[in-house]
Amino acid sequence: MAIDADQYRKIIGSFATGVTVVTTNVDGNYHGFTANAVTSVSLDPILLLVCVDKNARALEELRQATAFGVSILGESQEGISNTFATRGDPEGGTLRGLEFSQGETGAPLVGGAIAQLECEMGEHFEGGDHIIVMGKVVGGEILSDEGPLLYFQGKYRRIA
Ligand SMILES: Cc1cc2nc3c(=O)[nH]c(=O)nc-3n(C[C@H](O)[C@H](O)[C@H](O)COP(=O)(O)O)c2cc1C
């Protein structure tokens, strides 16, 4: 059974996910990018992974960062998802002009997110045209009971 990248993209798009913004702070320069290839890996130790396109600006930052943040977006944050799905250079002291807080690791965390996690940087693995970035989860909290922003078949969705 043959399959090409376009068919695979369509089929895997049926695997509904949440939407996150993965953020870094390298010497006071903040960067974030929208990611749904975020997976919980382990509870002992607590690990998660993020798959990052080798062409993403984010990868340069993640290669230098000692930590990263994961902000889980709420259903009202489609605009924020689109903002961070647009290539952007790291900025000193600001996260695209949006509201944010600074976590204990120094990573910026997106304001209004429904939950957030902070990770110490873990190993990086080759994954085809992506790099698999592991994070050791060192903190986090649920911030709101707003419903999640979902991504399914190439579109944003909400829980009905
Ligand atoms: C819903 C959604 C999920 C995405 N998930 C990922 C992902 O998991 N990994 C990735 O590398 N890019 C993902 N992207 C694309 C990046 O957000 C996009 O390439 C972004 O411009 C990267 O910014 P940067 O180049 O400034 O780092 C996603 C985009 C959207 C809209």
Q: Helical content, roughly? A: 10-25%
Instruction: Give the tally of β-strands.
Output: 13
Order of helices and strands: HEEEEEHEHEEEEEEE
Q: For the report, how would you describe the main beta sheet?
A: 8 strands, antiparallel
Number of helices: 3
- Rg computed from alpha carbons, rounded to a whole number of angstroms: 15 Å
Bound molecules: flavin mononucleotide
Quick check: average pLDDT?
Answer: 98
End-to-end gap: 36 Å
Total count of domains: 1
Strand content: over 45%
The CATH superfamily is Electron Transport, Fmn-binding Protein, Chain A
CATH class: Mainly Beta
Shape summary? globular
Strand order, largest beta sheet: 4-5-11-10-6-2-3-7
The CATH architecture category equals: Roll
What is the subunit arrangement here?
A: single chain
Low-confidence stretches are none
Report on this model:
The strands form three sheets. An eight-stranded antiparallel β-sheet has the order 4-5-11-10-6-2-3-7. A three-stranded antiparallel β-sheet has the order 1-12-13, with no helix packed on it. Helices cover 14% and strands 48% of the residues. The chain has three helices and 13 strands, in the order H-E-E-E-E-E-H-E-H-E-E-E-E-E-E-E. Strand 8 (100-102) and strand 9 (108-110) form a beta hairpin. It has one domain (18-155): Roll (Pnp Oxidase, Chain A), CATH 2.30.110. It has 160 residues and is mostly beta strands. The N and C termini lie far apart (36 Å). It has helices at 5-12, 57-64, 78-84; strands at 17-18, 20-26, 29-35, 38-43, 46-53, 67-72, 91-92, 100-102, 108-110, 115-127, 130-142, 150-152, 155-157. Bound molecules: flavin mononucleotide (FMN).
